Amino acid sequence: MPVALVARGAAFVVPALVALWFGVGEITDAWFWALAFPTFALVLASTSLGTAITPVLARVSRERRADLPVVLGGLLAQAALGSTAFGLLICLAAPPLLDHLTDFTPETASLALRFLWGLLPFMVLTTCAAVLRVACEVHAHFTAVALTPILRASVVILATWLALTPLGPMALPLGLVSGELAQLFFWGAVLYVRQGLLPRPSLRLDPAVLAVARDLAPILGGEVLVALNLVIDKAFAASLEPGSVATLEYADRARVIPQTLLESTLLMVAFATWARLFAQGEVAAARASVRRSLSWVVALASPVLAGMFIGRQVLVQLLFERGAFGHSDTLHTSTLLAWYLPGVLPNLLGILAVRAHIVERNLRLVLALGVVSIVSNTLLNAALIGPLGLEGLALATSLTMTLVPAAYLWALWRAWGAEGPPERRDRQFASGVAFASILIAAFVELSVGPPASLLDPVLWLAAVPCLGLAGLALFRQRAAAAG
């Protein structure tokens, strides 16, 4: 956990430096609009592809170890071909999208298109790296995976900084591509040094790869629809005043901090464990692990989110307010963050529930709720952007992130029958921590409002109960794990 916190903290330095160098304006509007598509590819690679191949690689590693290099090489080859085709399609479709879905000036639209072509290699490398990351997780190299964001962020920052003077804004895609390439080689080196595993690229479709393709279709469909929400939000924001896309992106970057930590700690270990238990036929043990994980997420995340809500203005200041990013940008971004945060906890539970459904082979549900997600988000965006502007887009995201995870959890309890929600004691404890966290955040908000600086005593007074609740939840979780 401390390793993951430090590593993910390093990764958040990158958007902070973008804010320092370029602030909020047409350059960052163009950059974050273009980045929405590779981010879309990143989500697909890290969720749908990674999720589909985890059980397969776990099974091949256990039952057909000698075939693992060919299976892994086949997955890499197919991932590279698929992501290249997808990236080219996006780049070729971008000009009409820019014309019809944004109010960008011709200069901003032209820069966005150049950014997009510069990010094409990033889309390919991201997808291939997801395959190697899962192979590392299946072989329990969790520390190496958790440390990788430090390497990646360091390379991104160094490459961008060195290219900033000669290339100007185009240093941004170059930096991302460099970081992704370093990450890919690092995970490949870990597998070779620790496992003696050297992928043998092959276009031959091994039965295991075909199994991935069958599993991937409904998972990919569902995740594509969910990930498209990122693009849709940017399209709506691009119809507002200049700087709106960038402001929405900065608030979203702060919002995903808890999700990023979950995916680099509990989820990384939990999903690999669930897949292994199901492969061994230990269904009851896997379901018990899912229920414990859901309770722990509620108990651990609630006080953290309460603290983020209370200190949202200070958080945005610490992350972004320097250089070209001014105090007015901080106020607007922190306001958006307040609308985003209520949907974060349901979304964290939904992330776990999706993985549980995939292990349980409820794959059509992932596709169906992907449709619900994109329809809900689009309709809510259209309804709320008029009266609320950017805040309406953030609220639409929070409402969608509450509706869809609730459906996932309901379907999970229904499928499990008697083995439904977590045990009563775990539910009561997690609910109590969540309720206390909400009371703390509401009291501060309604009495004095959000603290405006790091030196504000209200911030530190509110931190005491939040940290106390988080510490209590962590103690309870470790005691349960030890028992």
Highlighted features:
mainly alpha; disordered N terminus
Describe the model:
Helix content is 85%, strand content 0%. With 483 residues, it is mainly α. The longest helix is centred in the N-terminal third of the chain and has 38 residues, at 26-63. The model is unreliable at 1-7 (pLDDT under 50).
Explain the layout of strands and helices:
Blueprint: H1 2-11, H2 13-22, H3 26-63, H4 68-101, H5 106-118, H6 120-138, H7 142-167, H8 171-195, H9 207-237, H10 244-255, H11 257-264, H12 266-279, H13 283-310, H14 312-320, H15 327-340, H16 344-359, H17 363-388, H18 390-416, H19 424-447, H20 457-482
Helix pairs in contact: 1-7, 3-4, 3-5, 3-6, 3-9, 3-10, 3-12, 4-5, 4-6, 4-9, 6-8, 7-8, 9-17, 10-15, 11-12, 12-13, 12-16, 13-16, 13-19, 13-20, 14-15, 15-18, 16-18, 17-18, 19-20
Question: How would you sum up this structure in a few lines?
Answer:
This protein is mostly helical. The chain has 20 helices and no strands.
Q: What percentage of the residues does DSSP assign to strands (E)?
A: under 5%
Q: Between the first and last Cα atoms, what is the distance in angstroms?
A: 20 Å
**Mean pLDDT rating:** 82
Helix amount, in percent?
Answer: over 70%
Query: What class, by secondary structure content?
Result: mainly alpha
Helix tally equals 20
Low-confidence stretches: 1-7
Largest sheet: none
Give the strand tally.
Answer: 0
* Alpha carbon gyration radius: 22 Å
Q: What is the string of SSEs from the N terminus onward?
A: HHHHHHHHHHHHHHHHHHHH
